[in-house]
Amino acid sequence: MEVKTDPAGRLHDLLEAAKKQPESKRAREALGIVFDIESRDTESLLRLVADLIMLSQQAKSRIHSLDDITHDIFLEPFPKIEKLLSTLNLDASWKPYRELLSDPTTLYGLKFCSDKLSRIDCIENIDKSEIEAIQAKLASLVDDILNSEIDPDVKELLLRNLEGLRQSLIAYRVRGLEGIEREVEAGLGSILVNKSKIEKTVSKGKNGSLLKSYIALLEVTNKTISTAKNLKELGVVDLVTKLIGVDNG
């Protein structure tokens, strides 16, 4: 399963998944399935609903910015989508929200928007399996760090950064590449900002190994993004490991 890189395509796929949910469910149950999170996790649901609202606005704004289309036609799906998102109550029945998506022109219209934007952006879709592979590596690294005797301040720094990256991967179907990019940049930046603290704790033992694993994870993630954007990959690991004094050999 591929995750589309243009905002209208991601919005379409999420709303199509939402439309498939039985009307007998509560909104939080339906959205929990769509976002692949626990329906009882209200905090995460609200965060993702907010991201979904921003995604809708982003798609609408992108369509508005085009000067070679008839805007009224391409923007036709958005009133119903905005009504759904603006009135959403997690504990209400899913039925009225599902009915707002029942008009075939809503989702079909988003397909046209997605087709137009994807031709402009020329960014390749990323398969869900690639994201899942990064998530698995991240989870394994978190376990290693938690069970290590690395300096407490450095441990807290790495775990905080990894949690931000984890959240961006969970929300990738909504936020897209931009959310992951921001976390990669933040992760690398925090390492450099805390360079002096990290240098004091780095050795050829476990500390250095964990730091190299962390930076390698960021590089794998960055490579996935760069490949999708057809950009030349930078030698992130070599650069950062040298700057913080970790032997990459």
Biggest sheet: strands, sense, closure?
2 strands, antiparallel
Strand content: under 5%
Mean pLDDT: 86
Distance between termini? 36 Å
Number of domains: 2
Give me the number of helical elements. Answer: 14
Description:
The chain is mainly alpha-helical. The protein has 2 domains: 2-121, no CATH class; 126-243, no CATH class. It contains 14 helices and 2 strands, in the order βαααααααβααααααα. The protein has helices at residues 7-19, 27-35, 42-65, 71-74, 78-86, 95-100, 104-121, 128-146, 152-170, 172-175, 177-193, 195-201, 206-228, 236-243; strands at residues 2-3, 126-127. The chain has a two-stranded antiparallel sheet. Helix 1 (7-19) packs across helix 2, helix 1 (7-19) packs antiparallel against helix 7 (104-121) and helix 13 (206-228) runs antiparallel to helix 14 (236-243).
Question: Quick summary of this structure?
Answer:
This protein has 249 residues and is an all-alpha fold. The protein has helices at residues 7-19, 27-35, 42-65, 71-74, 78-86, 95-100, 104-121, 128-146, 152-170, 172-175, 177-193, 195-201, 206-228, 236-243; strands at 2-3, 126-127. Helix content is 72%, strand content 2%.
